[in-house]
Amino acid sequence: MAPRPCDPQAGTVVQIRGLWTRFGRTVVHQDLDLDIYRGEILSIVGGSGTGKTVLLRQMLGLEHPAQGSVCVFGEDIGQAEHEQLQRMRNHWGMLFQHGALYSALTVFDNIALPLRELRALPEDVVRDAVLLKMSMVGLGAEHAAKMPADLSGGMVKRAALARALVLEPQLLFLDEPTAGLDPDLSDAFVELIQTLHAELGLTVVMVTHDLDTLFALSSRIAVLAEKRVIAVGPTQEVLQVEHPFIQHFFRGGRGLRALQVLDQQEQ
Amino acid sequence: MQIEKAPTLTLTPADAGAAQSVSAEGIWQVHALAQCGKIKALTRTFKTLAPRAESLTWDLSAIETLDHIGAQMFWNAWGKRRPPRLTLAPNQEEIFRRIEAVKDTAPRAPRRSPFQPVIELGLAVHKFGEHLLSFVKLIGGVALDVVRFARHPALGPWREISANIYHAGFQALGITALVGCLIGIVLSYLSAQQLRTFGGDAYLVNILGMAVVRELGPLLAAILVAGRSGSAITAQLGVMRVTEELDAMLVMGISHGFRLVLPKVLALAVAMPLLVVWTDAMALIGGMIAGKIELDLSARYFLHKLPDAVPIANYYIGLLKGATFGVLIALVSCHFGMRIKPNTESLGHGTTTSVVTAITVVILADAVYAIVFSNVGFY
To answer: Could B104 and A144 be called an inter-chain contact, meaning their C-beta atoms sit closer than 8 Å?
Structure first.
């Protein structure tokens, strides 16, 4: 299969063409295509071990395609020069599944790190910008001096989100944003992401298992199975696709309950 | 990436008239601000404008894109309140509303007390006492575990002990052999030159044998093991703390002392004397080679002379030292490993302190042995 180069169209933020990912002999992605458009919230779903997080890592340039191309902001990540990649990295934010806060730094320093790394902003602007981001994610200023080890799971996620947002990214990656949070916190987090998406005009790419989060947030869903994207589109469209995995995943007991809630909300 | 319009501030009219106005243009986003290196100039302009921010007319509506950080710069220049004459684009209103909503309640750095040095000294003493106490507790715990082990040897952590002997003992054979041999050569050359001056060539065996068997063999082995296994033990326990494996063991009712500390202590108590024998042998071989080259002492003479030159008691002292050092290294490493807090900095710091303390304690114990056995093993 000849590699297809990416042709940046207006409105696409991420463009994946003919992507193959291999780990040793295991093939994770086989000829995978996916487009992500500006301003949408795209959720990637799939069973365990279908390579959702790996796909996210491909978009971030943490993994390298065995074949094919991954273009973010119209630049091929695999071919990009170091400096280009660096500039790109300042335009996206990533929320890791377990937060990945730097354990040796306080919450404040964690969030301030990307700003200080620019080596341009005066310290008082950094300080105010960090406090603003903390208040945006609902993290009180009294937590600023705490160490990540002293935070609860929900607060770690919030601090990590504040860190992901501090450079005002256009593109936000979320890996299991609500995993490990209680239902109350999950709802609050979903609402938070919704608000931020509306206010900042972000493009959000999210990997999730949580059907409630999925239905509440996504403008489109991409279903990963059989090493490729088997269906992509708005929630209702994807639900109609006749595929054993999709029927099983969304029409199982949990899926039906979540759908009922969704229907009620729409009415 | 497209070429971006740099952020600019224009003051009109330029002369300091009565009704000056400031208009901002370009892209006021964090990347544009950081990239073009204009931030210094902008900060300077803001500084000159800040005192009379109230009297100026601000027009931000021509700004192409504004983000929170760009807005924050204006906000700080205005003294954290809106100037009376301000023109904003509709979408900028929201950003300033959000900035306005932030309450600046973050705790500032605490003020230094004038008694800071005294407080620090007190804290250091307190910390030392705490270390001492928990070290004594650790020794007590190990003693109890040894009793438990002696009562039911079949239920003991045999696999862990054997694994630790393999890692700390067998895998250290190469490095101890190399270092021992080199030290033997160095010592032999150095003594040979001095001895030749006095015509006492034959006493090389005495000097070398005594130094290596009684002091250098045990000490070299201990320092190498402290560096190799001591750091490994501390780091292992530290990572187990970080990944909550230690807690998982407690929850399952598996005692840390019995399954983690005891096997390491026993393994080093067994492995270290063996390593001492090995290091002694290697150092003597190194010395023998150098003696042959430098003083033309034959290996046969060397081996024949050795039992006469070095009383066998020294050998036993060396073995005893080895076992003691092994136990001390294991205890110190476990002590620091258990105290590591779940963050990366503590892990690094704990490992360093562990190795340094282990080596210091070994040398301290060596000094104690030198005093206690000052009349043993000499003619």
So the answer is: no
Residue B49 lies in a domain: yes
| Spatial CA neighbour of B56 closest among B101, B93, B24, B100 | B24
Measure in Å the smallest separation between the Cα of A241 and chain B Cα atoms: 38
Examine residue B112 and state whether it is found in any structural domain, yes or no: no
Q: Does A1 touch chain B (CB under 8 A)?
A: no
Give the tens place of pLDDT for each residue, A202-238: 888 988 888 888 888 888 888 888 888 888 888 888 8
SS3 category, B60: coil
First to last CA, chain B: 85
For residues B291 and B232, state if they share a domain: yes
The answer on B14 and B77 residing in a single domain is: yes
The domain spanning residue B21 has which CATH number?
A: 3.30.750.24
Full domain range(s) for residue B168: 121-372
- Cβ–Cβ pairs < 8 A, chains A and B: 86
If asked whether residues B228 and B317 sit together in one domain, one would say: yes
User: Are B157 and B296 part of one and the same domain?
Assistant: yes
The verdict on residue B378 lying in a domain is no
The DSSP line for A11-61 is TEEEEEEEEEEEETTEEEEEEEEEEEETT-EEEEEESTTSSHHHHHHHHHT
Q: Which residues of A touch B103 (CB under 8 A)?
A: 135, 141
What ipTM, to 2 d.p.? 0.72
Q: How far apart are CA B374 and CA B367, in angstroms?
A: 10
d(CA B76, CA A95): 29
> Over chain B (379 residues), what is each successive 10-residue block's mean pLDDT?
65 65 80 73 79 79 81 81 80 80 65 85 94 94 93 90 94 95 93 86 88 93 95 94 88 88 95 96 93 88 89 93 96 94 86 95 95 85
Q: What is the spatial distance between Cα B48 and Cα B45, in angstroms, rounded to a whole number? A: 5
Is residue A245 within 8 A of residue A225, CB to CB? The reply is yes
Q: Is residue B270 part of a domain?
A: yes
Q: Tell me, yes or no, whether B88 and B236 share the same domain.
A: no
Do the chains contact at A103 and B344, CB–CB below 8 Å? Answer: yes
Tokens of B158: 């045999």
Residue A50 phi/psi, 5-degree rounding, is -95, 5
